[in-house]
Design goal:
The chain is of the alpha/beta class. The chain is built from 14 helices and seven strands. The radius of gyration is 22 Å and the shape is globular.
């Protein structure tokens, strides 16, 4: 089977704005590519569709493995698509192997109903080595989905206990899924994420687990009173849901919509997006400088010896880094 024709930036943009799912998928593959030619084309595409972005409601969803993130998203997404008539995109980030670098990318199999629905678009992506389990190009994929006309975008994180600040820095609402009766071993993890969350949702409140879920709700509500007030000016509700029965899903979405309306009114919504854009800028600068550093010919030549010296204890990492940075020359120039 011949490879598909390579599209130009205007062709990509036209297809995305027309809601062509195939071209949208190809465009996301393009922004995920590390090839220089693909990266240049991806930036052209993003610039072309940029005026058509920013109109979606962006929701980050996180929680420890086993909390039922994919099942919850499938159930809530079905409510949005089937009952409310929304156009939904799900950017699901799968953990990558630290040995081989591969990912299972099985989110589509865990969301069979959404995967088959024409109003839903699911895109699993490998987390790679990104802190917090968010793929490098997730922000760009989010913009492409917005330009394609999706009203709501879910970003599902790996949820393995790494910093979740990356996903928090690209969404309007951050939802933390919790389990009742998970024990106290995760309290250190929960504290940091709970402070960032705009709402907590206790999942699997069904099949005899209702009483434990209600007790957990009271405990978490009490704990949240000890945290500093949220900069959004909004309280952090604790909700109970069952993806199996559908209980609480409508309430979850009502909380998200009410939060968006209130923060738009008090100015926090736009302020947060502006802060995220600036954060994205600075992260992009760091990534580009790092890429140019390792691409410098003098660095590539000297790096193996420096690594051996540091590993053998003959040279401190700081001294090696200083010398390599001096060798790298002007990083503002494209190698």
């Amino acid at each position: 089977m011949p490879a598909p024709k390579r599209l130009t930036a205007p062709e990509y943009a036209a297809g995305i704005l027309a809601g062509n799912r195939t071209i949208l998928g190809r465009a996301i593959t393009l922004v995920e590519s590390t090839l220089p030619a693909d990266q240049a084309l991806a930036q052209e595409v993003l610039q072309a569709v940029l005026p058509h972005t920013g109109r979606s409601l962006r929701v980050g969803i996180t929680g420890v493995p086993g909390v039922g993130k994919s099942t919850f998203i499938e159930a809530l997404g079905r409510h949005l698509v089937e009952t409310l008539g929304k156009q939904l995109a799900v950017l699901a980030v799968d953990p990558s192997s630290q040995r081989g670098g591969g990912s299972i990318l099985g989110d589509k199999t865990r969301m069979p109903w959404l995967s088959a629905h024409p109003s839903a678009f699911i895109r699993p992506s490998p987390a790679g080595t990104s802190l917090g389990g968010v793929a490098r190009a997730t922000r760009e994929a989010l913009l492409l989905c917005e330009a394609a006309g999706h009203d709501v975008i879910f970003v599902e994180t790996v949820g393995v206990g790494q910093s979740e600040t990356t996903v928090h820095g690209m969404v309007d609402f951050f939802l933390l899924l919790m389990l009742a009766g998970a024990g106290d071993e995760l309290q250190g993890l929960k504290r940091g994420i709970m402070e960032m969350a705009d709402a907590l949702c206790i999942t699997k409140a069904d099949h005899g687990n209702e009483q434990a879920a209600r007790r957990a709700r009271v405990d978490y509500q009490s704990a949240l009173h000890l945290f500093p007030p949220s900069p959004s000016g909004q309280a952090q509700p604790v909700l109970l849901t069952s993806a199996v029965s559908g209980t609480g899903l409508a309430e979850v979405w009502e909380v998200i919509e009410n939060y968006a309306a209130a923060t738009r009114q008090n100015g926090y919504f736009q302020q947060r997006r502006q802060q995220q854009q600036l954060q994205w800028l600075h992260q992009s600068i760091v990534q580009e400088l790092e890429a140019r550093f390792y691409a410098a010919a003098a660095v590539r030549k000297r790096l193996p010896d420096m690594q051996q010296a540091v590993a053998a204890g003959r040279l401190t990492p700081f001294a090696a880094a200083t010398e390599l940075l001096e060798l790298s020359g002007d990083l503002t120039k494209t190698p």
